[in-house]
């Protein structure tokens, strides 16, 4: 691994740290404002932060190649708008479920349960006619056992908070598939910026209908909102875009899986939210499933081939 790859891996680890600790910001914010108020505020900030990023990337492209990154034809603009609205709608649903859940569970549980999307996405692709590898089914079994140990204490029912975060994992899986559909056809940062503003608009409508935030509430939640909006949404996404260039996708996905670990550490250090031995065992199983799901199949095929190869004769 060369110096650039090491730097990019460290940047992705920093991204995972920012995203993982954002669960703490969401948990603290939930104590002062409703989920729609928090989501609207952070989404507006996330979209605003990406505007200068888009401008800088476009200016750089013009200087280096003379090509603008902004959509030119009306067809391109319509596709970008449609993609932003579609992705923003799913992001709104997923983030709302997550914010409601985070307010009723711990940051560690929220981080690990949300990360289950890594296992859910391949299962959902079954309905799109794609084949699911046997390895994924093993990971799903490990993940479900881990989820049981982490969340189901004294019965077979999930708490309201854990249920909402699990719903959020399914909704984020839908969001990922939506992004996977639209992102190859357009600029990813522009798509993300539009989806943030769509999420903000939908959250604002729901906030006006169902919540009554006060200036005092917003002031009390200001730091968590700023962290989630600027660092988690804006800076975190930008770091991901920069760091993933030229980096092995497997290394990238495994590094970003540390988000769940950082959420547990941040909850413990900043909020004093400890985990029992049973819950830690569940986290370990879920993390193992997440990591295993992202390892390339070629690694296992190569290992199997090595095991099947005849042993070399000993040196005489």
What does this structure look like?
The chain has 316 residues and is mainly alpha-helical. It has one domain. Helices cover 78% and strands 0% of the residues. The protein has 14 helices and no strands.
Concise overview:
With 316 residues, the protein is an all-alpha fold.
Produce the secondary structure layout.
Blueprint: H1 3-29, H2 35-65, H3 74-102, H4 107-114, H5 117-124, H6 134-151, H7 160-182, H8 188-210, H9 215-220, H10 222-244, H11 249-256, H12 258-271, H13 277-294, H14 297-308
Counting DSSP H or I runs of 4 or more residues, the number of helices is 14
Largest sheet: none
Q: How far apart, in Å, are the first and last alpha carbons?
A: 37 Å
Q: Which oligomeric form is depicted?
A: single chain
Roughly how many Å is the radius of gyration? 21 Å
Using DSSP, what is the number of strands? 0
Tally of structural domains: 1
Bulk shape: globular
Average pLDDT, rounded to a whole number, is 87
Structural class: mainly alpha
Low-confidence stretches: none
Helical proportion?
Answer: over 70%
Strand percentage lies at under 5%
What is the succession of H and E elements? HHHHHHHHHHHHHH
List its traits.
316 residues; mainly alpha
């Amino acid at each position: 691994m060369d110096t650039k790859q090491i730097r990019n891996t460290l940047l992705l680890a920093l991204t995972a740290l920012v995203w993982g600790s954002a669960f703490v910001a969401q948990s603290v914010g939930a104590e002062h404002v409703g989920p729609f108020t928090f989501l609207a505020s952070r989404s507006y900030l996330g979209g605003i932060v990406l505007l200068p990023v888009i401008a800088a990337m476009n200016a750089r492209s013009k200087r280096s190649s003379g090509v603008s990154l902004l959509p030119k034809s009306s067809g391109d603009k319509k596709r970008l708008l449609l993609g932003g609205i579609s992705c923003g709608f799913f992001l709104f649903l997923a983030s709302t479920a997550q914010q409601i859940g985070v307010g009723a569970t711990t940051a560690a549980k929220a981080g690990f349960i949300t990360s289950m999307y890594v296992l859910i996405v391949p299962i959902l692709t079954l309905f799109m006619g794609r084949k699911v590898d046997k390895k994924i089914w093993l990971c799903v079994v490990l993940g479900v056992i881990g989820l049981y140990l982490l969340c189901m204490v004294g019965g077979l029912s999930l708490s309201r908070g854990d249920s909402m975060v699990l719903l959020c994992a399914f909704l984020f899986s839908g969001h990922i598939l939506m992004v996977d559909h639209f992102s190859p056809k357009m600029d990813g940062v522009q798509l993300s910026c539009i989806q943030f503003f769509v999420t903000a608009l939908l959250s604002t409508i729901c906030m006006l209908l169902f919540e009554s935030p006060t200036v005092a509430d917003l002031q009390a939640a200001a730091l968590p909102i700023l962290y989630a909006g600027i660092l988690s949404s804006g800076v975190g996404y930008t770091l991901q875009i920069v760091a993933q260039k030229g980096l092995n996708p497997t290394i990238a996905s495994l590094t970003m899986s540390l988000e769940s670990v950082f959420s547990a550490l941040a909850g413990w250090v900043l909020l004093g939210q400890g985990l029992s031995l049973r819950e830690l065992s569940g986290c370990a199983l879920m993390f193992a499933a997440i990591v295993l799901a992202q390892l390339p199949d070629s690694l296992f095929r190569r290992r199997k081939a090595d095991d099947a190869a005849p042993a070399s004769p000993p040196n005489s």
